[in-house]
Design brief:
The structure holds 2 protein chains of 2 kinds. By secondary structure, chain A is an alpha/beta fold. Chain A is 34% helix and 12% strand. In chain A, strand 7 and strand 8 form a beta hairpin. In chain A, helix 9 crosses helix 15. Chain B is built from 15 helices and 11 strands. In chain B, the strands form 3 sheets. A 5-stranded mixed beta sheet of chain B has the order 6-5-11-8-9. In chain B, a hairpin with a 5-residue loop joins strand 8 and strand 9. The relative contact order of chain B is 0.13. The chains are: A alpha/beta, B alpha/beta.
Chain lengths: 597, 388
């Protein structure tokens, strides 16, 4: 073990691991040093300079986020010198910033605003630079709006896009006073490689990158007496929504969320989990079909490995980056879009509604889902399958607007039909979850027995952050019709974050990996760390959300998708069989290549 | 100009030795310890402006763990009013390459790079010719050290060492956080010595004449000679190699036009010295250091315009990544405009002075930190010109 480093911060001595920064050491002492460009998930930039501290016998003020501790260091975090310097820095940022806070979507949830208020900035110290800046707003995207006038150039978004996602849609352009965060040739976001994952939105400290919100459109629909407004909620929303409403991370709020949605006035509160289960049936059968083609028919054209297709950020990523592998995607639509297609067909029939009167809303942990809902591929009901997509954050705003005391709401149950769920569906919200849910079903279909893991917890496929997780499941003692799979080791790989997705696909491309089934979720940690989730999202919060998801899974009476009674019912009443004609029409699709530039 | 009080030196531009690459050959035969000891004895400090002791920089890099190490020659001469590296590379490139090769031996590097200012592209053909000769001799001497020339693209910030590495690595030229310093993590995150063009030539001269001879020039804190780029209101602009530690009044006596009201020492990022302080100002590390730029201004010049010009320069040449530098430069420029126009009261200059002090202590790199040098020295000494 390496020797600890001793230093003094604000008169308190502390020993920390070598390599720690002053900021980390101060946090251990519960001394809060303000930061803006710093983010736990990202590499240290040290460019906003708000976190400067005074170091004795050093002329300059080091940025505490970037300065490693050294033996005998004496640090002051709140000296007069530091206070003035920080105030200057915040004032400088404000002078370049369109500080019209009441017109800003992030009003009340802005890191610059709260720093300014903490520092009592009052009358601005410096000249307003905004009028002479030619700031532009990119509002041409269905998912994300980029407003340069709110940008403080901390580059969190740039680092997110490059480090976590390997997308690099956002970068720095120009220098000096003209330096800005921009895209390839300053094209609008919808014309570049942006996947709409929203990880930048989740990390933007101000209102420079925000989701396009559809809150008012949804209120309009709710209060339109001619409309029947159905709402579906994604698995990862129920374990994070509380955070947007003052509840600590890691609390499951499914019942309260349902109650709130009913109080908001939705006609039916249904569950994306239902179509998550349906996805497993379709996708599981698709995998088995492809395996059969490969093993029995020796079809050289079969596209293996098969990759999941639930994550719309991942879909756009593969369209741009690995278009030659589009055929390897499962043809299943995402649960959101399956739900949308069924809401305006199956559900409409059952409820005797005219689909044109149905408004289909989804609550997602995701910004890419907004883009997905607007895809031309997603109109198989004859209408726009999903009309509006709201993020977890937007739902939080609606609940506040409605004046509901969220914590005091009673727990309520989803409506039926299309409201029943299983544990398998819930874990769609975390990395490895789709894989685990699929294996629970596929194994049982093939062998007639439950997958032999304690409590159905297939821990080897439970992904962890920043890791590509490989696992294999050996199939033994199959039912007679699946005998071709006897002894086959199904090789799986699970990756979260597009940087890891890229690694997986590159290994497939290079022929160095030999997988059957690939699960990709575009966001770190899976949907629970989605771009539409409450801010902040960081490693610690994601791990709490993850624990909550598995807790929710364990608490569900049904844990396997194929046991979902409503799923069984829909095959009986409507779809007939997995991969059947109706399924293909409504639940499956194909995507097309996009260019990298 | 022969009967001058200032001591002219002919070290840097002195003639090559009779036998090609003789000093290099002799030096390569010596031990690293001997070379470092001579450098330490000579008191040589970096000629880029910051004045870090060269022997220490080399020693740290030599001792840094890691097999692969690099030598980088910073020829991104961008400081306004500096044009001496161009002259050195034109007239005595062999000395530069030899200095780099010696450094390669001392620190254990096999590869050296010369990062040439984009605007100096026209020097490239001649430099490459000389480089071919160097490589032939290095081969002959059995010295495994090659040199490659890389071109900058015109950004001032890329003269900052860590931004220069970023640029060489193919990234946007933005300064890095320090630590780690180049001695442990420089180009490609490997231990790297990065020195100014002139520093390498000085090394070469110390090897040729020995530290004792070298030490006879200059003062205790500023050993040796320095190549100055003299410009502005002077009848004799040009490149001059002079002894370090000279008093500024004697410099003005010789180079001024009789009406000199201020000298900007060290370019836009340096200090402005007004006439009343010429007598007490020493040019050197103990007084006002300079990377070589000496700009003289006579009474016809508006110091407001001078400062405004510098600030515009910084505003544009800041990389834009850190707040104090990016926004601070804009505020200083707009601020003095506002005071001049009367939109802000004269007292606003005090506010701006405080801001420049904050920039000095909070900016991420030397660029933002040094804006305050010219700003405060001009505003303090020529306040009336700022207001009226």
């Amino acid at each position: 073990m390496s020797k600890k480093i001793n230093l003094t911060i604000d008169g308190i001595t502390i020993s920390v691991e070598p390599g720690s920064t002053i900021l980390e050491a101060a946090r251990q002492l519960n001394i809060h040093i303000p930061t803006l460009c710093y983010h736990e998930d990202l590499c240290v930039a040290g460019n906003c300079r708000v976190c400067v501290v005074e170091q004795e016998n050093v002329k300059t003020l080091p940025a505490s986020c970037a300065m490693p501790v050294s033996e005998g260091m004496v640090i002051h975090t709140n000296s007069m010198k530091v206070r003035l310097a920080r105030k200057h820095i915040v004032e400088l940022l404000l002078s370049e910033h369109n500080a019209d806070c009441t017109k800003c979507y992030k009003n009340g949830n802005c890191e610059l605003q709260s720093l300014a208020s903490q520092m009592l900035t009052g009358d601005h110290m410096f000249l307003d630079l905004v009028p002479e800046k030619k700031y532009s707003i990119d509002m041409f995207n269905t998912a994300i709006i980029k407003d340069d006038s709110r940008c403080i150039r901390c580059q969190r978004c740039v680092r997110t896009c490059e480090e976590l996602q390997s997308v690099s849609a956002l970068g720095v352009a120009y220098k000096g006073d003209k330096m800005k965060i921009s895209t390839f040739f300053e094209n609008p976001l919808f014309e570049v490689v942006c996947t709409n994952c929203g990880q930048c939105v989740n990390r933007c400290p101000t209102g420079a990158l925000i989701e396009r919100n559809y809150i008012d459109s949804v209120w309009d629909a709710i209060y339109d007496p001619t409309k029947h407004v159905v709402v579906q909620t994604a698995p990862a929303v129920r374990i994070a929504l509380g955070e947007a409403l003052g509840i600590p991370p890691g609390k499951i709020v499914t019942g309260k969320m349902v109650a709130a949605l009913k109080r908001l006035g939705f006609s039916a509160v249904l569950d994306t989990d239902f179509t998550a289960d349906l996805t497993i049936i379709e996708e599981g059968n698709e995998l088995l079909t492809r395996l059969k083609k490969a093993i029995v028919d020796k079809d050289p054209n079969v596209s293996l490995p098969m990759a999941t297709s639930c994550s719309p950020g991942w879909i756009k990523f593969i369209e741009h980056t690995f278009p030659e592998f589009l055929g390897n995607l499962s043809t299943c639509k995402s649960p959101q879009q399956m739900f949308g297609a069924l809401a305006k067909t199956y559900y409409a029939q059952k409820r005797k509604l005219d689909p044109k009167d149905i408004v289909s809303v989804s609550i997602m942990p995701c910004t890419a889902k907004k883009f997905e809902a607007n895809r031309p591929e997603m109109r198989s009901s004859g209408y726009k399958d999903v009309d509006y997509v709201l993020t977890t954050r937007e739902l939080g705003i609606m609940i506040k607007q409605a004046g509901l005391e969220f914590e005091e709401l009673p727990d309520e149950h989803f409506d039926s039909i299309m409201g029943s769920s299983t544990g398998a569906a819930v874990i769609f919200g975390t990395t490895g979850g789709v894989m685990e849910a699929a294996l629970r079903t596929v194994y049982e279909v093939v062998t007639g027995r439950e997958i032999p893991f304690e409590g159905l917890n297939i821990t080897p496929v439970r992904g962890t952050e920043n890791e590509v997780r490989e696992a294999s499941v050996k199939i033994e003692k199959t039912l007679p019709e699946w005998s071709f799979l006897e002894g086959v080791e199904v090789k799986c790989v699970v990756a979260n974050g597009l940087a890891n997705a890229k690694k997986v696909m590159q290994s497939v491309k290079d022929g160095t990996a030999n997988y059957h089934f690939i699960e990709i979720m575009a966001c770190p940690g899976g949907c629970l760390g989605g771009g539409g989730q409450p801010i902040p999202t960081n490693r610690d919060i994601r791990s709490k959300r993850k624990a909550a998801i598995y807790e929710e899974d364990m608490g569900m009476p049904i844990r396997k998708s194929h046991d979902n009674p409503e799923v069984q019912l829909i095959y009986k009443e409507f779809l007939e069989k997995p991969l059947g004609h109706k399924s293909h029409e409504l639940l499956h699709t194909h995507y097309s290549p996009r260019k990298r530039y | 100009m022969s009967d001058t009080m200032l001591k002219r030196v002919d070290l840097i531009f002195g003639e090559y030795s009779n036998i090609k690459y003789k000093v290099l050959a002799d030096t390569l035969a010596r031990t690293n310890e001997e070379i470092l000891k001579d450098l330490l004895d000579s008191g040589l400090r970096g000629r880029g402006g910051a004045g870090f002791p060269t022997a220490m920089k080399w020693k740290f890099t030599a001792e840094a763990p890691g097999k692969e190490k690099f030598v980088v020659c910073n020829a991104d001469e961008g400081e306004p009013g500096t044009f001496k590296d161009k002259e050195i590379l034109t007239r005595v490139p062999r000395k530069v390459f030899s200095g780099m090769a010696i450094c390669g031996k001392v620190i254990g590097a096999k590869k050296g790079y010369l990062y040439l200012r984009g605007e100096y592209r026209f020097l490239l053909p001649e430099l490459l010719k000389e480089l071919d000769i160097y490589h032939d001799y290095a081969k002959e001497l059995g010295h495994d050290f090659t040199i490659e020339i890389r071109l900058g693209s015109g950004a001032y910030i890329c003269g900052e060492e860590s931004a220069l590495f970023e640029s060489m690595e193919g990234f946007r030229g933005e300064p890095r956080n320090k630590p780690p310093y180049p001695t442990t993590s420089g180009f490609m995150s490997k231990p790297t010595v990065i020195n100014n063009v002139e520093t390498f030539v000085n090394v070469m001269m110390i090897m040729r004449f020995g530290p004792d001879q070298y030490k006879k020039l200059g003062t205790t804190d500023s050993r040796g000679s320095k190549v100055f780029s003299v410009s502005g209101d002077t009848p004799i602009p040009g490149i001059y190699e002079l002894e370090l530690g000279m008093p500024l009044d004697r410099f003005v006596d010789e180079f001024g036009d009789g009406d000199t009201k201020a000298v900007q020492v060290g370019g836009a990022s340096g200090f402005c010295v007004p006439r009343k302080k010429f007598k007490d100002t020493v040019i050197g590390f103990e007084g006002v250091p300079t990377g070589g730029s000496m700009m003289l201004f006579n009474s016809s010049r508006s110091m407001y315009n001078v400062l405004h010009n510098y600030l515009e320069f910084f505003e544009e040449e800041s990389c834009g990544q850190c707040t104090p530098c990016r926004v601070g430069c804009q505020q200083l420029r707009k601020g003095i405009e506002a005071v001049k126009k009367g939109d802000k009261k004269a007292g606003y200059l005090d506010q701006l002075m405080k801001l420049s002090e904050s920039m000095k202590i909070t900016a991420k790199c030397g660029l933002g930190q040094s804006v305050a040098n010219s700003f405060s020295s001009i505003v303090n000494n020529f306040k009336e010109e700022m207001i009226y």
